[in-house]
Amino acid sequence: MNVLIYIFLAIGAVFNGLGAVALLRFPDVYTRIHGATKCTTFGSIFSILAVVIYGFWRGGGQGGTLAVHALIALLFLLLTNPTGSHALARGAHRGGIRPFRAVVDRLEEKR
Amino acid sequence: MLYSLAAMLRAAEWAVTAAFALATYLVLVLWTGGIGLWSLSELIAGAVLSAIVGMVAAPILWERGGFRILQPHRWVLFFFYLVGPFFLAMARANLDVAFRVITGRIRPGIVRFNPGLKTDLGKTLLANSITLTPGTLTVDVDDATGDFYVHWINVKSLEPKPEEVCGPFPSWARRIAE
């Protein structure tokens, strides 16, 4: 069981790290949002799964509380992360920021 | 008669919202005492708080209908969607984005497509699924026409079909929400 927890934590750390690298490497706000939302959500899912497994494995009131609270945090992360990034992207586009090196921009044509 | 029907509808909306709030609260305070798994003070606090939450939130939440989500088989479908196709697509997307982070090979653009969804819930579900998966990010949704404007990190065609951008998600969103 310990091995599984370590594997999940490692996957989570790697993907969260990749999200940070994406922030530095990508050229404009939209591509950076890609890196910052997807990689960190996926990484956080695995980190939280590790916590959940640890909590249920330890058992009892304390472990169970830990696991259930982590699951609820995961649920709200999955709900709020796409909503927040959508708001950021929409705000950026309305504020007049054009996607870098875009081959097509249908939203610009609409306005 | 009409008035009482509207009042009953409002009461039902309040009851559903309050019940959901109470369930969330009870899950948060599991293992606190001896009545079931809860202590008496937590049960009382939960009842009072969920009644208030129901009064405040119900008129806003059910303003534009959306009662379909109360059918239980939609919850089962949603669960299978989350652990099955959605999680698979998410894993693939992350490997893809990881590859692009390292090589820097991108061809970005904002494309438009129309998945033909009608309800608010279906649109929200699809937009959030798109944002979390294969190199795509929902920038805007046109409420009147149902058009989705999606920032795509690797544009393959300028006038894509919904299936090209987000695979089986539109049909799943239709199954769950409409």
Secondary-structure-derived class of chain B: mainly alpha
CATH topology of chain A: Helix Hairpins
- Backbone CA Rg of chain B: 21 Å
Q: Can you count the helices of chain A?
A: 4
**Could you give the distance between the termini of chain B?**
30 Å
* Main pleated-sheet profile of chain B: 3 strands, antiparallel
Largest interface in this structure: A-B, 46 and 38 residues
Structure in words:
The complex is a heterodimer of chains A (111) and B (178). With 111 residues, chain A is mainly alpha-helical. Chain A has a single domain (2-100), classed as Helix Hairpins, CATH 1.10.287. Chain A has helices spanning 2-25, 29-58, 60-94, 106-110. The mean pLDDT of chain A is 85. With 178 residues, chain B is mainly α. Chain B folds into two domains: 2-63, no CATH class; 72-177, no CATH class. Helices cover 61% and strands 9% of the residues of chain B. Chain B contains six helices and three strands; from the N terminus they run αααβαββαα. Chain B has helices at 2-28, 40-61, 72-103, 120-132, 162-166, 169-177; strands at 109-113, 136-141, 148-152. In chain B, strands 1-3-2 form a three-stranded antiparallel β-sheet. The two termini of chain B are 30 Å apart. The mean pLDDT of chain B is 84. The interface between A and B is large, with 46 and 38 residues.
